[in-house]
Specification:
3 domains; 16 helices; 555 residues; Gyrase A, domain 2; 4-stranded antiparallel β-sheet; Multidrug efflux transporter AcrB transmembrane fold; 53% helix; alpha+beta; 20 strands
């Protein structure tokens, strides 16, 4: 039974070791003959391990969300929505004004009949989210103001929302292992983005900053009317654009669309009703497709969330035969006639290429940024710097490993070979674990590997010194080995748990390279429990199996 158990332990070690070797040095695709040459193995190693920005090179961006613009837009939209809500309720209101500058954000709605003040307030609150706004009345007007504390909360929410949107766009774009985190002071609105392997970040910047403001709006009048210039459209409104109307460029499949593609001003304009029936926040999904299968003929189909679908269905059901404007980033892309009630889907037509349609669908799915972004710092880290860091880190690791190997062999003699095998296996399996968990190896991560080697040596030293104590106490070799592992195990567990807890805290509150250090150290410590205890003990068990009456052990 004892021999059977030893064979099972050995089989487990061999299988895990072979799997680790394949994960680290083997190809991640269908292998070819060149994969098994020395150069091929080196290439496989470089391909299998995700390297961070400090090792692989890439782009480093620091951007700032214009949170003041976000609050300004929010104030303007709420002002128009408040006026529309009161008018929809047939209440006596005049005009609405708003202040949105110098940390003063307020909405003032004039009520022509002060006896209807409370019904006006109730109607506005029912349709407009003014929960964080303070309310006050004076004469025939009601004012909602945004306190400083609420401003800070909304600004923070805008930055967090921008981070989620940027993350979804970057992940969908395919940038591997990006680092995205808040940067600078909490109130600065800054975001740090690092993208390993991206040496030309212009397309990424365009994708991050791309607008994706989709709105479904009713065209003014009973039928669609186009104007050659914005001035002509304005004249049809009496020379002043009302608050519930917008003049927008119209670029549907026409000569204007071709001009717009070349950067020229579109030649047609239409008037739409404001605010929109449904906006981009109600979007659930979007995808690009080509009815004809040719580039330049792509369209974007979209689906709405249940709330938006209900509003869209109510509107289209009541406006059959009228035109609906599909507005994208301030331009009317199409203005189809409503043929019947539509609930949750629609299409954006135009002269889209495959790439532009896919990028547009991606930005629509991720949602519109709450405010525009400005870039404050941009650096490109060359791969040569990363290569130098890798060489330095590898040299330090190898140098430390060689020193430890020499020390263990001199100080612990034959048993030192046992420790060396456990150390090499620990390093191999830690790299394999990084690959399995798709983690990124950074320069601090290499430091974590070196520290893990030190912890592995510490475990072997604890075990060997405990075995020496038992031998000095007169125990036979078999008993000394058993007691050495059993009594050192508790101490090993204690040291590993405390270090793992510290590393977990580093991972939770650190960012980028600090988290890379924590990940490699945690993996190294967990694997060390296997290599320094299970593997090392199995080697001693084989020695005792071959010589049960062993009187001395080289330690």
């Amino acid at each position: 039974m004892k021999n059977s158990s030893l064979w099972i332990r050995t089989a487990i070690i061999i299988v895990i070791t072979l799997v680790g070797i394949y994960l680290v040095f083997g190809p991640r695709r269908v292998p070819v003959a060149s994969d098994f040459t020395w150069q091929g193995i080196k290439n496989n190693l470089a391909e299998n391990i995700n390297l961070g920005l400090d090792l692989k090179g890439g782009s480093h961006l620091v951007m700032r969300v214009k949170t003041d613009d976000y609050l300004k837009t929010l104030t303007e939209n709420n002002a128009q929505a408040a006026l529309t809500a009161a008018k929809d309720a047939k209440l006596p209101v005049g005009d609405v004004t708003n202040a949105a500058e110098n940390s003063n954000y307020s909405i003032t709605l004039n009520v022509t009949d002060t006896s209807q003040m409370q019904p006006v307030i109730d109607a506005v609150k029912q349709k407009v989210d003014l929960l964080n706004w303070t309310e006050s009345t004076s004469g025939n007007s009601v004012t909602w103001s945004l306190p400083a504390q609420a401003q800070n909360v909304l600004k923070d929410q805008a930055v967090e929302q921008a981070m989620r949107i940027i993350e979804s766009r970057i992940n969908a774009f395919g940038v591997k292992e990006p680092t995205l985190a808040r940067h600078g002071a909490q109130s600065s609105g800054q975001i740090l983005l690092q993208m390993p392997g991206v040496d030309d970040p212009e397309r990424i910047k365009k994708l991050i900053g791309a607008e994706s403001n989709l709105a479904l709006m009713k065209t003014a009048g009973e039928s669609i009317q186009t104007f050659p210039t914005a001035e002509a459209a304005l004249q049809s409104l009496g020379g002043t654009e009302p608050q519930n109307r917008k003049i927008l460029p119209y670029t549907e499949d026409s000569a204007a669309a071709a001009d717009a593609a070349q950067g020229e001003q579109p030649k047609q304009f239409i008037i739409v009703e404001y605010p929109p029936i449904v906006d981009g926040s109600e979007l659930r999904d979007a995808s690009a497709f080509s009815p004809s299968g040719t580039d330049g003929d792509y369209q974007i189909s979209f689906n709405l969330k249940p709330g938006g679908a209900q509003k869209f269905g109510d509107f289209t059901g009541k406006n059959i035969g009228k035109n609906l404007a599909i507005v994208l980033n301030g331009e009317v892309k199409s203005a189809p006639t409503i043929q019947g009630q539509i609930f949750d889907s629609g299409q954006i037509t135009g002269r889209f290429t495959k790439a532009s349609a896919e990028d547009l669908a991606l930005t629509l799915k991720s949602g519109a940024l709450p405010a525009k972004i400005e870039y404050q710092e941009e650096r490109t880290v060359g791969p040569s710097l990363g290569a130098d860091s890798i060489r330095a880190g590898v040299a330090a690791s190898v140098g430390g490993l060689i020193f430890i190997v020499i020390f263990m062999l001199i100080y612990y003699r034959g048993s030192g070979i046992n420790a060396v095998i456990a150390l090499v296996l620990n390093l191999l399996l830690t790299l394999a674990a990084l690959i399995v968990f798709d983690s990124t190896l950074t320069l601090p991560g290499i430091a974590g590997l070196i520290l893990g080697i030190g912890m592995a040596v510490d475990s072997n030293v604890l075990i060997f010194e405990r075995m020496r104590e038992e031998l000095r106490a007169g125990k036979d070799v078999a008993s000394a080995v058993t007691l050495g592992f059993d009594r050192a195990f508790i101490t090993i567990i204690d040291t590993h748990i405390t270090t793992i807890i510290s590393s977990v805290i580093l991972y939770m509150y650190g960012s980028g390279p600090i988290r890379g250090f924590a990940v490699t150290l945690i993996l190294g410590l967990l694997i060390n429990l296997f290599s320094a205890v299970f593997v090392s003990r199995t080697i001693f068990m084989w020695l005792l199996e071959r010589n049960p009456n062993m009187k001395k052990i080289s330690i």
